[in-house]
Amino acid sequence: MKIKKILKVILLIAVFISYLNYSSPALADAAPSIIGAELIDAGGYIADNIESLGTIKGSPEEKNIFAAGDDVVILLHHQSEVSVGDRLTIFRPPLFVTHPKTGKRVGMLFMPVGMIELKGVQGRDAVGRIIISYSYISPGDQIQPHRSVAPVTKIVQTDRDVSGYIVESQEGKMLNAEYGIVYLDRGVSDGIIPGTIFYVIGEDHHDVIGELRVISVQATTSTAIVIKSAEPFSIGSKVGTATTK
């Protein structure tokens, strides 16, 4: 429980720093005009398949919890997939996400926890130094090639009336507060792009109880940050691009 509280504080501090220089005509006290690449990287996403090049096995110092500056030992799935100097994303073992309303499989949750730079590679064994950590890193976490992302440069109020649901939240939170990360069942196929505004709709289908900003999109899902929360809401809450339903 203590570790979970520490992680929550780390996430809130990281997101708060990312937003210090941001403003919005819609919500001058909360919403950003630009969403930085590091926040997008840390937000993760839901996809059908998650690529993995290998698994963190431990460290030369025999630690069990790692952070930026620590060296770790990696077991690669195959030889010759990486080279010294490569930068790789570290992520939690993917979990299947089931839709809270339909019970159908939505995809796999990709949850980044940091970035590593390789210092040595021999066969399937590799050693690297963690250069960024979004959360604690531990044996069993996996690696994949790091892919650069572009920051979100504008907020988008779509003309389309798109509705959906929150299907998951970072760390499996049931109640979502401001600056939390949530995952929606609407994506590129629904016309959603980074920066799109979604509103969280209350149970009476009229009250807006929260506001979200999409930070990244996949084919049928998107990742969003909670910008405004008038009251707690949960996985399974309805969202829409219009303020009333």
Topology:
Blueprint (H helix, E strand, L loop, with lengths): L1 H17 L18 H7 L1 E3 L6 E5 L12 E6 L10 E5 L3 E4 L6 E6 L1 E11 L2 E9 L8 E4 L17 E7 L11 E4 L12 E5 L6 E10 L4 E8 L8 E3 L5
Antiparallel strand pairs: 1-6, 2-3, 2-9, 3-8, 4-7, 4-9, 5-6, 7-8, 10-11, 10-15, 11-14, 12-13, 12-15, 13-14
Oligomerization status of the protein chains: single chain
Largest sheet: 6 strands, antiparallel, barrel
Classify the secondary structure makeup into a structural class: mainly beta
Helix content: under 10%
Beta fraction of the residues? 35-45%
Cα radius of gyration in angstroms: 19 Å
Overall geometric form: elongated
Cα separation of the termini? 38 Å
Average residue pLDDT: 85
Number of domains: 2
Number of helical segments with 4 or more residues? 2
Uncertain spans: 1-33
Lateral arrangement of strands in the main beta sheet? 2-3-8-7-4-9
Give the ordered list of helices and strands.
HHEEEEEEEEEEEEEEE
Number of strands: 15
Summarize this entry quickly.
It contains two helices and 15 strands. By secondary structure, it is mostly beta strands.
What does this structure look like?
This protein has 245 residues and is mainly β. It folds into two domains: 2-46 and 151-240, no CATH class; 50-145, M1 Pyruvate Kinase, Domain 3. Helix content is 10%, strand content 37%. The strands form three sheets. Strands 2-3-8-7-4-9 form a six-stranded antiparallel beta barrel. A six-stranded antiparallel β-barrel has the order 10-11-14-13-12-15. A three-stranded antiparallel β-sheet has the order 1-6-5, with no helix packed on it. β12 (197-201) and β13 (208-217) form a beta hairpin. It is elongated and about 60 Å long.
